[in-house]
Amino acid sequence: MSGYSAITGWGMSVPEKILTNADLERMVETSDEWITSRTGIKERHVAGPGESASTLSIAAARQALARAGIEGKDLGLIIVATVCADYPFPSTGNLVQHALGAQCPAFDMQAACSGFLYGLSTAHQFLANGSMKHILVIGVEVLSRVIDYTDRTTCVLFGDGAGAVVLSASDEPGGVLGFTMGSDGARPDLLWIPIGGSAEPVTEEGLRAHRQYVQMQGGEVFKFATRIMGTAMEEALDHAGMTAADMDLFIPHQANLRIIESASKRLNLPPEKVFVNIEKYGNTSAAAIPIALCEAIEQGRVYPGAHIGMVAFGAGLTWAAAVVKWTAPLRTREKVRDALPATAAIGS
Ligand code: ACO
Question: Catalytic: 113?
């Protein structure tokens, strides 16, 4: 059987604590002017004690389940896209599964900033072939735990957060209409954490050299991103039998405003079709697209019948894009608040 999928639930969660450009000015030699003009970022949320990939995921997932009108036990699969799992193992997916009272398989997916779209495309397969009814896909990062706050070339860019969707099987034409995914692992060092894996264990010398933190060759990543974003989006659109002009809303990965503008120009999209919230969150990697989707819905920019294009690039290097036709009813914030346990906050 080959059917369709639909996003039936969505939710987001970000830590309360905000780190502004002014805060960073006091930590490293930088300026609000430099950060704003080079990246578009004004502030980012960072985790406090007790917050982790699983706590943010669970809060976002509870909203998504409430909006979909289902419970944890109704899920067939949980996919958590992250490079910031609570532990090297077990997976964050396992922790989320238990907390939600789900009785289904769960795993983490690691494709850096492209992870959420890798997860969405994977989930779509199980729904389209009829083997599952509801899948929870989460993008979550707590990059503040692996950022070197003495390195101005990386610490101004990243933030923490989680976004989740429930993707459900549907008979109605819509949902994921086309997607693409890619990988080029020739230069892992362009964006990586060098130590702590099986290639190079943590040593005192490595720690002294700050090799346990994110290291990036920003210029090279920038060039790659501006090249791949438009191409990947066009490929996914082509698989859906569409062109860029057919998109009602474009949700690009929120890594750098200049990269977003370059991709939008390449796709010939007017600003009103492009969703941007990088100023509030910075680059939240795998969480960026689902958080942006939640805010786009909240702002009334998603409606039944809308075609949404999403594209991401990230460490690996990886890239992914998907075209989704919105078919599900849009549940209001009030309805969800009523359905949620008192402890599960609605995303900001
Ligand atoms: N404040 C002030 N000056 C800075 C800062 C800072 N925070 N960071 C770098 N500079 C300086 C540099 O040292 C350099 O000085 P120099 O000319 O004296 O050497 C100067 O500013 C210019 O540096 P560039 O690196 O050329 O600046 P650029 O305009 O390329 O912007 C940036 C840097 C923002 C990192 C950009 O290259 C970029 O966004 N790259 C893509 C990064 C990205 O998206 N990564 C995430 C990928 S997704 C994932 O998987 C997590």
Answer: yes
